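Annual report, structural modelling task.

Input specification for the adenosine-5'-triphosphate complex:
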Amino acid sequence: MSDTMTRPKLRLDHVTKEFAAPRTGLRTVAVSDVSLEIQAGDFVCIVGPSGCGKTTVMNMIAGLDKPSSGTIEIDGAPITGPGADRGVMFQDYALFPWLTVRDNIGFGLRNGTPGRGMAANDVEERISKHIELVRLGGAETKYPHQISGGMRQRVALARLLANGPDVLLMDEPLGALDAQTRLILQAELLRIWGETAPREERKTAVFITHDIAEAVFLSDSVVVMSSHPGRIRAVLPIDLPRPRDEHVRAHPRFAQLSEEIWELIRDEAYRAIA
Ligand SMILES: Nc1ncnc2c1ncn2[C@@H]1O[C@H](COP(=O)(O)OP(=O)(O)OP(=O)(O)O)[C@@H](O)[C@H]1O
Ligand SMILES: [Mg+2]
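The model returned the following structure:
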């Protein structure tokens, strides 16, 4: 097998991250000795109690923060900063309120690295394609305050995808949505990620959530973290068939996997609210 076939898309090797408080110099170990490999085309969710270091891990993969020790690689090369190969999406929509849906989606393509060298009409075509992909046709001239939360999150998703990253990094992107919209967007997300496409055409997705059912529904594997310090407790392969729709939630294996994950985090979750 060639190197590119065996090499993971992302590799975290003994990654530790410490933060020092500015005045006291007191150190917090946010993430300790995390090693993880993520294969190209995999959808991986990270779950774990609040403060266990999920966002810290994602920020380091995004290149927004650096490990205190250990290394993180993408396609075998060390990550030294943010790059167009990775797109990030957060819980708050982070849309530009003064731009329309279309202009929000096109922002990176028109003004950033992803669109550099592309002809203007190719850029516009690409924006239109992504508006269709997230089913926002008809809303493209609206402003963020004129559309629903679910629609705003679709805009954020379209903007992320339009920039053409290989790796999607999503930190609780559906956390602010109502329960029904959330279920619908979970299924949409799988479609957009490429669930029905051949494996090699899928993006690599890393998705943080507090919602165990969401993690089971979306994932090829779930990384369970524990806190103080943040470590990986277990990595569970999710062996539910794809493509998945809402019926998979009634699958006995779905309940079994959700239960296993809850068993792993229950004690800490209770302690966190005590
Ligand atoms: N910039 C920072 N400076 C100091 N400490 C930080 C910083 N960022 C995170 N931490 C600390 O690192 C630990 C992990 O935080 P992180 O935000 O990664 O957790 P999380 O798992 O994403 O939590 P949540 O589920 O609440 O989003 C926490 O103890 C947090 O207080
Ligand atoms: Mg977080």
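The mean pLDDT is 92.
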